[in-house]
Amino acid sequence: MSDVHYGPSGVAGQKAILTWAVHISVALLVILWVLPTLGLFISSFRTADQISTSGWWRAPFAAEQVLQMRTAAPDTQVQEGDLYVIEGNVMEDGQAGEIASWGISSRDVSAFQPGDAAELRDGGTLTLMGDGSYRMESDAPFEGRRGQRVFLTAMVPPELTLENYRFMLFDESNVNGMSRAFFNTLTVSIPATVIPILVAAFAAYALAWMEFPGRALLVAVIVGLLVVPLQLALIPLLKLHLGIGIGKGYLGVWLAHTGFGLPLAIYLLRNYMAGLPRDIIENARVDGATEYQIFVKIILPLSFPALASFAIFQFLWTWNDLLVAKVFLIDATGRTTVMTAQIVELMGTRGGNWEILATAAFVSIVVPLLVFFFMQKYLVRGLLAGSVK
């Protein structure tokens, strides 16, 4: 018997290359999924100045930032001979390191170096040192209620704070909005996940194991509905809901999510149930079990991986949904606002407070992350169902 040799282009070599390609592809997908989540998590602990001046990957390192400070108020001035003097330190809290440059106008924040003296608009001079200490001198008394505005360019040490989460979860000006939006999202997501699973399970069993005229046509129609764009049905469905009196409320959004999720649910569950051993169902029928008993006591327990996998998809979709909630869940008082809509309102009302938006976004994905990690084994089993006979 001659020995078998595998050349560079042999089957063994191709299999090794394919394995490496799969591993690299999976690693890239994991990185693409983890990096944005990690960045959002780190940004939720950073201040607004840090977010605006450097990326989240610079969080462990000092970063150069432009800080706006003020000197002490004129009522703290003292008279030294013929001069009126105000002294102090704009960095008394130690929030920055050595000052690289400074300015007294937003048009040129780096006009002066530490130790330089700047001529003030109302007369007098301001001398600022690298450690933040300053001295203001003038022949005439300083006037006004506020101190001189100073722009500092300095290396600011890394800082992580829980202030963003305190504002989001406990501040009286915001806690009602976010907490109410959190429970509103649960109120939408849980029924919108359970209802299509119940309906799809019955339909999938009928299409998989019950003989009736038109079964193949129904399966074809369901497959065709998978490619119908959601946006195509939004306005007609809203008009139908308004016509029967269930529009702009929880019932309308539940039924909308149920309708949009049923084609995928029926298709997924039907394929899974059709792959179950036929002998089990036939033996149960021979023993006198009804179709309902077979469905409840045999099919549902065996179909749990497929049910769990669809539940994950449906829950994630309904939790992160904004479009359907905007169309079918309209409330001017904000009593039914979901978290995605609440985040949009934060973007509109708080402008550039990116630290608040990052925190709100991460709070909104905590529940989907927990659901995914705790049920991922069922997701994998459900997706692989029927792939191996």
Q: Which short descriptors sum up this protein?
A:
MetI-like fold, alpha+beta, 5-stranded antiparallel β-sheet, 389 residues, 13 helices, 8 strands
Mind sketching the topology for me?
Layout: H1 11-43, H2 48-53, E1 63-70, E2 78-80, E3 83-89, E4 99-103, E5 117-119, E6 125-128, E7 133-138, E8 149-156, H3 163-170, H4 175-209, H5 215-225, H6 230-244, H7 250-274, H8 278-286, H9 291-302, H10 304-319, H11 323-328, H12 339-349, H13 354-384
Antiparallel strand pairs: 1-8, 2-3, 3-7, 4-8, 5-6, 6-7
Helix pairs in contact: 1-13, 3-13, 4-7, 4-10, 4-12, 5-7, 7-10, 10-13, 12-13
Would you give an account of this structure?
The protein is of the alpha+beta class and about 400 residues long. The protein has three domains: about 45 residues; about 90 residues; about 220 residues, Orthogonal Bundle (MetI-like fold). The chain has 13 helices and eight strands. The strands form two sheets. Strands 2-3-7-6-5 form a five-stranded antiparallel β-sheet, with no helix packed on it. Strands 1-8-4 form a three-stranded antiparallel β-sheet. Strand 2 and strand 3 form a beta hairpin. It is elongated.
